[in-house]
Amino acid sequence: MAEIAFRNVSKRYGDTLAVDDASFTVEDNEFFCFFGPPLSGKSTIMRLILGLETPDSGEVLIGGRVVNAVSPAARNVAMVFQNLALFPHMTARENVAFPLVERKVPATQIERRLADVAEALHITHILHKSPAHLSGGERQRVAIARALVRDPAAYLMDDPISALDARLREETRVELKRIQRELGKTLIYVTHDQEEAMSVADRMAILEAGAIRQIGAPAEIYDRPASTYVARLLGSPVMNVLRSVRGSGVLEAAEGTIRLPDTATPADATEIGVRPEDLKVAPWMDGSSGRPARVFEVEPLGGTTVVTLAAGETRLRALMRGQPAIAPDALVSLSCDANKIHFFSQGGGALR
Ligand code: ADP
Ligand code: MG
């Protein structure tokens, strides 16, 4: 069993509280992601799991056992390193087998392990080739195979693909997800890229200054962010968050007057949030049922278009499919399902 958990773990470096009373449980065989901006404590959490750091307080558990006093070597968790460069003078097979050869694992065992990993990564047919004769994607898969060939209870990856270009990153994260499922291993993954976190994780933990703000499945956190902080970290363009003014059953943003649909507003709502894709924008016509708004700017992105609306100083971004016939300064009708509106209290906590 490779369940990994923190119970109220804190870690301080001088005046910096790098990890602030963190508790979580990563289930066996789970793809679990820590996501947060730079310096939010992600790498420190990984080092605490590996045993390269000791908590100031709280407990680190692996497989249900407190391991605070257990050495890194005896913890049976492996960090998959950022450097995924292959040895150019070795074949793909030799590259993948290298970590096992280095540890003097018996040859028959190496063969078996190599066959399993090669199959999971779909590289069996290219194992005889040297890196120079592989495509970029193939090289990447061989490098991951080499990283995964050891068989620990859990793998840790700290921003493993951030150095790759965007296209290779997209390909690699798809591979990683499939491999993790096929190998059936606990994988703890760190990233500062929201799209990567959303796409790979079974569940994720959102960090702010060392504290875990929310844990859940990506879709669940996206749909029900616990605070404006979490809401703004996920989604592109970011969620529109406006100061709210209550009046006559109408929800109204304060600066300028962009009005959202009539809805029951919690009494203590000070901010309202709407995701760009939840706003509906249509050319204004007599009898339009939405609320009037003025188009400020239009950004065509190919498959989607970002339309920025303005009222006074207030800006509201809407994400539309395709390339709608909407131009700057046009009057449009703005609407939104009432159940897509998020309410936040003073301090940013979600209200429902
Ligand atoms: P992340 O990986 O999310 O970027 P880190 O875990 O590396 O964040 O860092 C969290 C905080 O702890 C930061 O403020 C960082 O400056 C501090 N920190 C991390 N490691 C050390 C260290 N060895 N000595 C002093 N401060 C550190
Ligand atoms: Mg880091």
TrEMBL record:
Keyword Transport attached: yes
Highest taxon above the source species: Bacteria
Keywords: ATP-binding, Nucleotide-binding, Transport
Xref: PROSITE patterns: ABC_TRANSPORTER_1 (PS00211), ABC_TRANSPORTER_2 (PS50893)
GO MF: ATP binding
Positions of the ABC transporter domain: 4-234
Family: Belongs to the ABC transporter superfamily.
Keyword Membrane: no
Protein name as catalogued: ABC transporter ATP-binding protein
